[in-house]
Description:
Layout: H1 6-22, H2 28-41, H3 47-67, H4 72-102, H5 121-137, H6 146-154, H7 156-159, H8 167-175, H9 181-214, H10 220-251, H11 269-275, H12 278-289, H13 299-317, H14 321-347, H15 351-368, H16 372-382, H17 393-412, H18 416-425, H19 428-454
Helix pairs in contact: 1-2, 2-6, 3-4, 3-5, 3-6, 4-5, 6-8, 9-10, 9-17, 9-19, 10-15, 10-16, 10-17, 12-13, 13-14, 14-15, 15-16
Amino acid sequence: MLxxxxxxLYYFLPVTLILYGLVPKKGKNFILLITxxxxxxxxxxxxxxxxxxxxxxxxxVGIKIEQNLGTKVAKRWLIVSxxxxxxxxxxxKYADFFISNLNLIPFVSLPLLKLAxxxxxxxxxxQIMSYTIDVYxxxxxxxxxxxxxxxxxxxxxxxxxxxxxxxxDVDEQLTHRTHSSEKMALGIRRFVMGLAKKVLIAxxxxxxxxxxxxxxxxxxxxxxxxxxxFMLHIYFDFSGYSDMAIGLxxxxxxxLLENFNYPYISKSITEFWRRWHISLGTxxxxxxxxxxxxxxxSKSRHFINILVVWFLTGFWHGASWNFIVWGLYFAxxxxxxxxxxxxxxxxxxxxxxxxxxxxxxxxxxxxxxxxLSAAVVTLKTMFGLDGASxxxxxxxxxxxxxxxxxxxxxxxATPLPKTIFKKLNQNAMMQKFFDVSEPVLLGLCFLMIxxxxxxxxxxxxxxxxx
Length: 466
């Protein structure tokens, strides 16, 4: 079930809010658990059993680790948790990838498992692992209430696409969280804004990228238009979903951490990855990079640490070589930056932004390709190789149709709209106007979104495939 779908907006969410509001405080986590399981099982009910199994193993392992803290037994239980979770992820997400590559060996012909990928398994697996690791480290106490732990892991606002919520960030909120009209108002604003980013902007950009991939007239300008459109599409799609998740969290008293911070204004790729998918970057930093030694090792070992982290980051996104290349692409850039370019980039106030945008746009061409050969074809077109024409009639048509949404998206990906709003809000009269008009504007925006959804417009969610 998509947040940007009519069943969610007009049936699931209102019923969930009513049930949640009616039950006493002690029953709220139970309602969240039941409704989250229903939400998760909407498309494929049998995947609920897999998630419940993962939660149950995490629950008992967490208790066992705490009971034996400081001993080898605790470490063994942690290893059990890591092997189980990575094993489940490997079986459902990566088994056919490994089998397909083994089948490239002469005389090897293994049958593919063809297991359906459970939605959100990459996200909730990482949450369970972070919980058991933090218990082992002594950063948090094991959760003795199964319903509370299950509600945390299955919490539908962030279940299928993040942000990756670490247990220690919501531990206290699971038992002591506040509900207020002010928090609800903030949640509504954030949810509707995220929904608008997804439906009114990301979906339109997604249409453009699909049209390019299906086109037989791919000029240089059209290819760059595609690269820019996809770069903006994935940002508005994923950050919009994160906004909706944060807004929904506030409906139920949770304060979830930010996942994006205007990444396209970055002055280096290092800064870009501090602003993009923050929860994933933080997870790999705390549970892979730092345990490997981080940057407090020899230069050669530091390079290896970066390569390992970015290989895993790419592979986490999907069982395909283009994702691995995408991750290693950033690893190489980051190594060059940290050792050669970073000081120079900090002094070049315009060139550094152009540098980031070009490299990121190239990276997302690799990211969105069906395979490496498709990525190479598009990249060649972008740089005028293989006889690609500079411009075409189809390019002109696409610019006239999608030029406005591209400009709107480019401006919306910067802090400019927020800055303008803040400056206007400093005026007392404008502040009163916004206070009165905001509910009306949000309501009109929601009606416009509904009209788009009723029309049956293009409405996929990119990160479902991860």
